[in-house]
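Working notes for the structural subgroup meeting. M.R. asked for a predicted model of this chain before we commit to crystallization trials. I am recording the input and output together here so anyone reviewing the notebook later can reproduce the run.

Input as submitted:
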Amino acid sequence: MCANFVPGSRQSVSVVVVAFNGLPWIARALESVRGLEAIVVDNGSTDGTRDLVRARFPDVRLIEQANLGMGGGNNVGMRVASGRYFLLLNSDAWVVDGGVDSLVSFADAHPDAAVIGPRLRNPDGTLQRSARGFPTLWRLATEYLFLRKLAPRSTSLNAFYAGGFDHADAREVDWLYGACLLVRRDAADAVGLFDEDFFMFSEETDWCYRFRAAGWKVWFCPDAEVVHLGGASHGGRLFRENLRSHLRFFAKHQGSRQAERARRLLLWSLRFRGLLFRGERGRDYRDAARWLASGRVPALLERRE
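Returned structure, recorded in token form:
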């Protein structure tokens, strides 16, 4: 279990919320962290997000900028934050009562923890699995060829999503889904902030990989809970960007040869999916496969649509 809360420690937390057309959920996100230093970094919203923040949350610092992606937006917020800890909260997520206290208490009790993540819930109360394993070619295959569906709780077939881990106990993990993360400032100062080449997706994977390589730990803390809508912050429209992030991770951490193998694996997986599915979903897979076939990894990483 996570440690007991030390009174007053939550005042050492700075909340950073990156928004891109965050209505209507950002209001609930900010309500859940009232009383803490909060910074909203708006990546060019056009839906009234900025007006809502100004009108309903005058104590929140609002930074307006062009869209730098999730990592870039969070970096801007962290650079102006004053707390010992950064709470990085998606605009479509909100903290359940006491969640911040539990995360800070756990971090204070584990000084080698760089990142602590809460248990995530879907709006209907069901568990949203947030513990993850670092990408490997086998783990990509289990995901994109649907092998993990054969045995969802199997570690061998579902290590990418930490198969077998029930999210009931505090545990060290490879990395955590970034809907809500408490990050130690000292660790971020030592390792650096997000790599902004990851525009969206895998930015937290890369960060946790760098933290762990430097000797820090990443922990899951189930005593803290956060409700996460999922997908609202990007609308599910960035499948190609997700694929690009996989390739970037492999190229950065495993070398160009493994990245090229990952490209070919994804290409043939999506061609298979394109044959298997009809309608818009099948078209999306076929479009993604054509993109993967259009060049080798270095060229694909240079392009941004």
